Amino acid sequence: MSFEFPKTFLWGGAVAANQVEGSHVSDGKGLSTSDVQPFGAMGELVDRQEGDFNIKDTAIDFYRRYEDDIELFAEMGFTCLRISIAWSRIYPNGDDAEPNEAGLAFYDKVFNKLQEKNITPLVTLSHYEMPLNLAKQYQGWASRDVIECFTRYAKTVFERFGDRVKHWLTFNEINVTLHEPFTGSGLPRDCSEQTRYQAIHHQLVASAKAVKLCHDIIPDGKIGNMILGAMMYPRTCEPNDVMQTLTQNREWLMFGDVQTRGYYPSYMTRKFKELGVELNITADDTEALKETIDFISFSYYMTGCASADPAEMANASGNMLNMINNPYLQASEWGWQIDPVGLRYLLNFLWDRYQKPLFIVENGLGAKDVVSDDGKIHDEYRMAYLNDHLFQVGEAIQDGVEVLGYTSWGPIDLVSASTAQLSKRYGFIYVDRDDQGNGTLERKRKESFFWYQAVIQSRGSALKAPTKTKSE
Ligand code: BGP
């Protein structure tokens, strides 16, 4: 590709606290909702007993190894690292009057290290976790009181880190409550639509309030939302399939619509009516929602198809979502359908709809890597996947879309959010640890490490016209 990405384009990777840090009760941290999900977001919850194994308790030990890991990211040429703050490190119970200084001190060290390496932090306030106490005592986000707990937390971290952190995101994949209510909102899986949408409403209000706080406390800061970008295509061109596709896409677009426009889109009125949902929206909520985000961020792993035919929908699957397979696409080992062109399509679609800068904050291939006899990890399938996706990002930029940056998911192997496996590897850096927790935790550069380094160094001009992926 002869095209060079803009000089300001941010290149890097993305991780989440509960999937990398470990040290789940160190230095005053409280238990989080993630700490009681040993089988991942799609598994059952457990009441923790002393001695129970949860791979996230140690994860990849980023809590103690962050300096070396950041050195490796810097060696690859990262200009950006997306991390999340574990809310329960700062407010162990969520409703504490005072923050936990040791938790704040940890992130001080991380941000100082990033500053030393000239890596711009992009920080998510809540990535698939909240203090467990809030889920247990308050029914999670179903409670309006949690808005205040969250804004207290947001204010604390903006005031403490605002001098070094200028880029923020509110809730990771804010639409996830529709699919995994405990992961998204601390709610039971079988909660009613009324509870689920009220919790979502509270999150949208909390997000808007955090946006306002960020604007007030960090005047040169930028804050965005984060959506699971699950673009659906019609399974056929039969008009009812096309209409069904619009309906399903609106399930996630609704979040971006509220967060960019400051009010609910009109199509939700009918939807709420049909679901029998009556939201409690106060005058203060309506006012708060008016504070809109500065940019839109999203994760992108796959696309799927929608159909108006219930028999077709019965075969739907896909990462926590209801998607029919697209016969034109191949899938990863975990069945996630690989669609690089869909990323260009989504970028254009969001740009046309919102005219706000976009940031791809997750994208990557989970695969079972093998350490070869030569001691190396030849992950050519990952390079092919990322090459093809980044190539399409370049195309979108040439289409005129404003793209702020790209942080690949899991630049270092980490624990899977959906399945809690470590063997579902995304990294440029291999971590010696298996799903049972065996291994030295030693880090090793994969072949893709040097590939990504070259791509960043060339500002994308080293990318090649699309190649084939592992599954082909
Ligand atoms: C997104 C989550 C991430 C991450 C990623 C990959 O939905 O925001 O936390 O884990 O998906 O998914 P998984 O880890 O299940 O492979």
Question: Which descriptors would you attach to this protein?
Answer:
glycosidase, 39% helix, 12 strands, two-stranded parallel sheet, TIM Barrel, GH, 15 helices, 472 residues
**Order of the strands making up the biggest sheet:** 1-2-3-4-5-7-9-10
Helix content: 25-40%
CATH topology: the name is: TIM Barrel
How many structural domains does the protein architecture include? 1
Query: What is the gyration radius calculated from CA atoms?
Result: 21 Å
- CATH superfamily (homologous) name: Glycosidases
Mean pLDDT: 96
GO biological process, one term: carbohydrate catabolic process
GO molecular function: 6-phospho-beta-glucosidase activity
Family: Belongs to the glycosyl hydrolase 1 family.
Enzyme class: hydrolase
Explain briefly what this protein structure is.
With 472 residues, the protein is α/β, with parallel strands linked by helices. It contains 15 helices and 12 strands.
